Amino acid sequence: MTQHVLSLSYGKDSLACLGAIEELGWPLDRIVHAEVWATEEIPADLPPMVEFKAKADAIIKERWGIEVEHVRGKRTYEECFYLVCGQRRGKGKSKCSGKIYGWPFHNGPWCNSSLKRHVLNKATKGSVQYLGIAEDETHRYHVLSDTKKSPLVEAGWTEADCRQWCEENDLLSPIYTTATRGGCWFCHNQGKGQLRLLRRNYPEYWALMLKWDLDSHATFKDDGRTVHDFDRRFQMEDEGLIDPKAPFRWDSLGKELNYSLFAQEGL
Ligand code: SF4
Prior knowledge:
Layout: E1 4-7, H1 12-24, E2 30-34, H2 47-64, E3 69-71, H3 77-81, H4 110-123, E4 128-130, E5 148-149, H5 151-155, H6 159-168, H7 192-201, H8 203-215, H9 227-238
Parallel strand pairs: 1-2, 1-4, 2-3, 4-5
Bound molecules: iron/sulfur cluster.
The site of iron/sulfur cluster has 10 residues, from helix 4.
């Protein structure tokens, strides 16, 4: 018999699917979450998010009687980072052939496809998948089909409804109420504010990013900025040499860079 599986990200829309499924009376057999690990010992989530997931799992088990399955790929982010291009797919040479993958910007978003999508697809194969697409997210409707359904769209729940449901059920993730980052702490898509916080609050994670940065031929950001560039910038802020709120001149790092002298806000 076809199983009905909720793909859980622990975001508000994803968690609110539990309420919408209940309201609709839809079947729910399994709940699956793709867990990413930075290394074998370090999760990709920051500690407040790790804590929240454990709390949410306990609430879900008690109220819905389902143990959330944390599925993961056979490799960690770091292991994928150090794979040599051409080795993974075995399909001839790519532009980075012979080099390690490194930061994902220049080699396609390998992290999302290898560590999340592929793992979730494998775990939910042959099932009807429930996705947390809210009623007001019409731009995402195209992914819905007979096997990928959104309880939120069916029940008419907007993103605001989802947030309210999570608040009422003690299931609102800290990413909505604190500066905690959702997603991997080493993500190349995060902005300077999150990077600054990571360096300040989790120096051991920052040190790991600096190590990866030295080994990667691909730069951290697609405009050529490296983690070391950000590190020097934040160090200058710490030393009171520059104001974190003032426009920043990347050439003040004393390095020739190929982009505009004045960094644009928002990265
Ligand atoms: S959150 Fe960022 S680093 Fe993590 S899988 Fe997604 S794109 Fe990759």
